[in-house]
Structure formats: C-alpha cells, structure tokens
C-alpha cells in the first residue's frame, strides 16, 4: 500500500484474510452471513439471510449445543466467546453418517435484548488450517473436539501430578498420561549430576536400555543435553531430522524404532533441572497446539518432581535423624530373654519428635537396662533434647548407678539445659528398668511415665502400678523410688510412650483396654506381637476402635517388649541358655567384724567342696582373703561377698564378687620387694581365669572367675597353676582404666 492511499474497508480486509462475518438474532430466528461465511458453511458463496434451522443443519450437533453454553458464559463474564465448529458436508460415510467438511473457528461478542428476551450475536468465521494434533506429518487435518479434550486432559494430569508424593509416583503418573490424539509410548526423565546426564526414570523401555545415556557428558551432541544447556525444547518430527541434527547419537536412538521425539526442559524457578523426553512410534508434526500441551505437561512435571524431591529429602533427613538417635537392637543374645522394639512417627509435621527407647548394657556384663521416654513437644528441639538426654542416661547407667540415681541425675541434667529460661525449659517422662536375666528381677524407676504392663503365660494382661516421681527436668532435687518386680518364665513386659495408649481419641483407661485386647488375642512370637500392638493403634484396625474423646489425638509411638523364656511366652528364646546358679552364698564383712574374713573363707571352701582342682580351690580362697582384707584395710566401708557356682554345659565356673561403697578404683601395680601392699591385684592377675573392676552407683565391685576345666567355654589357652589348660586372662572395667 502506497502512502496516501485510503485504508481498505473492514469487509475487504476480512475477505483478504479469508474470514467471514455473520450476525445472529435469536428473536427473529435468522442468521445473516457474507459470501466468505456462506462458503465456509458449505453454501453458495454469496451474502444471504438464513434460518437457524438451515444453519444448524450444517453444524455438528455437539458443536451446536456447545455454542449455546459458550454464549451464556461469555455474556455473564462480559468477554468474547470462541468455539470450534465442525461443518458437515452433504456426502455420507459408509455407516450413513455425514462427513466433516471442514473445521472453523468462530469468535463473537454476544449481547442480550431484555425487551425482546433475545440474544444478538455478531462474529467472525475462519477455517482452521493447522493439522489436527496427532495427525501424521503427511496427512490432512481432521479435527474434532480436541480442544475440549485437551483442557480436560490437562486438568486431570495436573490433579494426578499434584497428588504424587514421591519421585516414583510422579514418574508412574507421567507414564500413564493419555494425551488427546497423540500419546507417546516412550518416556524418559533426565537429570543432571555435576557435568553428567543422569536418568531419573523411564517408561516404555527394557531394563538396561538406559545404560548408554547414563552419565553422558553435558557437551555430548544429544537432544537432552542440548535442552539442559540451553533451556529450549527440541522437536524432531522424523528419523531423518534426528539423524541430520544429531548424527553422533542417532545410532543410540535408532534401535528403539521411534518416529518422532520431543525433548522439553523441566524448569523450576527459572532453573532447568532436567529434560523430559516423549517419543512416538508414528510421525508427529508438533503443531502449535501439540507443543502447547507438551510444554504445559513439562511444567507440571517439573513442579511435581521438585515437590517430590524436596519431600523425599525432608523425609530422609528426619528419618535419618530419628533413627540415628534410636538404638539398633538387632538379635540380642540375652540368656533366656528376648527384646523387641518399635518406633512409629504419627504426629505429622517433620515426622521427628521426642519419643525414644534404649537398651543399655550395665557394668559386670550380666545385667542391662531398658529405657523409654518422651520429651515434651514434637519438633526439632524436642528431638535434640531427646538425643542429649539419651546420652546422659547411658552415661549415668554405665557408671553403675542404681535406677533411682540414674533418673535423679538425668532430671538435674535436663533442668540445667534451659539455663533458667522458662521458655527453654522442657520436661520429659521416662521409665527406667534394670533387668537381671538370670533371676528375672526387674527394678523400676518412673518419672511421670505410664506404668508397665505384664502379659502372663496364659495371656492374662495386668497393669503393674509402680512408684514414681515428677517428670525429668521439673525439679532438680526430685526423688524416684525403686519398685521391684519379678518377670516369671513365660511372661512378657511391655513399656511404651503415651502415644500407644492415647492415639485415636483415647484416654488412659480406654487406651489400656484396647492394648489389653490386642495383647490377649495375639499368639505369635515377640516380633509379631510388637507389630500387632502397633497395628491395633495405628493400622487399619485402629479406625474401628476410636476412643471417647472428640479430638483424635495423634502422637509418636515408642514401645519395648521384653519376654522371659517359658511356656506361653512365644518369644523364641532358648531356655537352655538360662543357667541358674548351681549354688550361691553371700556374706557381709563389716569393718567392726574383721573375723568374718575367716568365715567367708570357710563358706567358700564349703561352696567348692567338690571342686576337681584343690589348687584352684586354694587359689580362690587366697584371692578372696586378699580382696576382703584390702577393703577392710584401705577403706572405711563394709564389704559384701557374693560367690556363685554355675554350670554352662561346658564345665563349671565360680565367680566371686566383693562390693564396697568407695568410689576409688584399684590399679594394677608392680610393687618392690620390700613393699607392704600392692600385691592383691597382681595375685588375681596371676591366678584367676578372668577378673575385673565394675564401678557401681555408690562404690565398686571387684570380681574374679575360675573355670574348673581351666578354660572358659569354647576357649583355648596356656597351662595354669593346676596343670589344666588356662586361657589368656581377661580384665574388664566399665571405666576402661584397668
């Protein structure tokens, strides 16, 4: 157009663009069309006024119904209306249905005349010339209601991807997406690690097909790496195009037999985190509509993968943090006993809290402690305090303190962590149990924690009330009395946090009733019993046993089970491992009664009256005399002597313990010829098969052992004083000083 020439009229301009005009008055029931619009409707190319019935006969019935809905919506929102319409021809298909002549797009501005109660519409009509989505590159367009299908597909895909919680779920959703008109049969999601390409997941390929593409350098001439480098999508409509653009990596892709490929960037917050590949077994033209769908899916896929990755990292962090603070019990070789434990985070949030359990070996090697507790709160600080408190409890227990002293020291420790700041002060409930596997004696100290439960051999379940004190951390001078119980053969002890009782809207009474039912009904082994107890509270069954409280309180669950071998326990422990003492004697030697040393020597000789080696008997009496005399001479405390003969199946052994209340530990020395002391431990080192010093809560215990065969069970060694084979002697001490 030359400067100064008049602009063409609107009709001429629309005709040049092959766009027709139409006007529809619903009150009059007429549609006025120009020549272009008439031709697009399959009528003679001339301006005409048509009836609604004649126009409706040229349109697909589904599209006619859609027009009325779009008109009302556009009028309500005050916007333009747009529809795609299939124009039906006069020719019929084999099945008698009319064929689609063409597809047109119509845009219009509706208005409503309230006086005539009629719609008045004026709009344009233009043929859709793009190939239909999914149409092979060499075929003509045959478009249906693809746009509506696309919108429905994107809504469904967005919902499914938003609900996926893990990377594998996201990949599974992506693999099952059925795109309208063109669905890929091969998918792959590539990531990046350092300067290498990685494969996060794939679908439609055999195992091992991804090997050539794993750890491919980012500078490789490959579509996925180019997308990662540039952030722009790559569309390849044919194998020839792939081979021409990427000749080096074409041999890797050729063997899959695909015909078209789309590589799209997975972008989150402006950063390309990976590449999504969609491969097709038929040629795809990748029209603008198809590219729009693929781009939208790629964006949703990137967001879903990012959310899933973040959630998985958080879960791994919190699970690792929580599990690192809990002991790995594993198969415990406790003579005649078995232990099982469970921890279930149910309180939501970071899935980390203050519940914990522990199993602590105690000095001497023949006792252990079970601990279970709950720090106030359900957050990272609670988890941190739990870790500190657990370490402190292990330290106090390893020093040999009795249960009451362990909890008293732990309470003072927790109270001191807050430094007097009320906002930082937190408390913890705790139950500490010292266990003697040989006798089944349990010593409980309780700090505001739920009472233990005993399941008897006939599955009768009883709650065993125990004396207790305030939760740890409230009063640094709180007292925690000890309650002694005996776990009989065939019985099982259960201790737990309040989450096992109160989860699901239960109070203490109804919660115990639910636990009692689960414990009494179960007949399996100890591990199965632990699972059954948790499932009764946290599994599907728990939804049928809701409590009376409106608030369905959820809290972390920690539970410990201890069974003693016997009929009905189901713990699977080997009762033959329990070797009760063949005989045992005890005697207290007071400072004011030194003559009791000779009584102790006589009792030991009577205890070992049938010992096979007279030399060992003399050695035992000599060493006992040395240790008792050492206590009376060098301390102001009384001495408690315990002598015990046991039969482990490979020969008898005698263990002699002397306990006092003085904390000072003896040390092995090399006295000179004229020294008047220092030879007691040297004699023990020379004559005993095993010995050690164990610190107690108040004082220490010096012990030594003699094996009747000269060998500990299963051991070999050198020749001892009695001529029998003697092992290399062992010395153990809870402090590691000896």
Q: Please report the number of helical segments.
A: 18
What shape does the CA trace take?
Answer: elongated
Oligomer: single chain
Widest sheet: strand ordering:
3-2-1-6-5-4
Main attributes?
alpha+beta, 738 residues, elongated, six-stranded antiparallel β-sheet, 31% helix, disordered C terminus, 31 strands, 28% strand
Task: Give structural notes.
This protein has 738 residues and is α+β, with helices and mostly antiparallel strands. It has 18 helices and 31 strands. The strands form 6 sheets. A 6-stranded antiparallel beta sheet has the order 3-2-1-6-5-4, with helices on both faces. Strands 9-8-7-12-11-10 form a 6-stranded antiparallel beta sheet, sandwiched between helices. Helix 5 (146-163) packs parallel to helix 10 (288-324), helix 6 (167-175) packs antiparallel against helix 10 (288-324) and helix 17 (614-634) packs antiparallel against helix 18 (680-687). The protein is elongated and about 135 Å long.
List the helices and strands and how they pair.
Elements: H1 10-16, E1 19-25, E2 30-33, H2 35-40, E3 48-51, H3 52-58, H4 61-77, E4 81-92, E5 98-113, E6 118-127, H5 146-163, H6 167-175, E7 186-193, E8 196-203, E9 216-217, H7 223-230, E10 234-236, H8 239-245, H9 250-254, E11 260-268, E12 271-280, H10 288-324, E13 337-344, E14 355-361, E15 368-375, H11 380-398, H12 403-417, E16 428-436, E17 441-447, E18 453-455, E19 461-463, E20 468-469, E21 482-486, E22 492-496, H13 499-502, H14 508-521, H15 526-538, E23 557-564, E24 583-589, H16 596-607, H17 614-634, E25 639-647, E26 652-660, H18 680-687, E27 690-696, E28 699-707, E29 718-719, E30 725-726, E31 730-733
Parallel strand pairs: 17-20, 27-31
Antiparallel strand pairs: 1-2, 1-6, 2-3, 4-5, 5-6, 7-8, 7-12, 8-9, 10-11, 11-12, 13-23, 14-15, 15-16, 16-17, 17-21, 18-19, 18-22, 22-23, 24-25, 25-26, 26-28, 27-28, 29-30
Helix pairs in contact: 5-10, 6-10, 11-12, 14-15, 16-17, 17-18
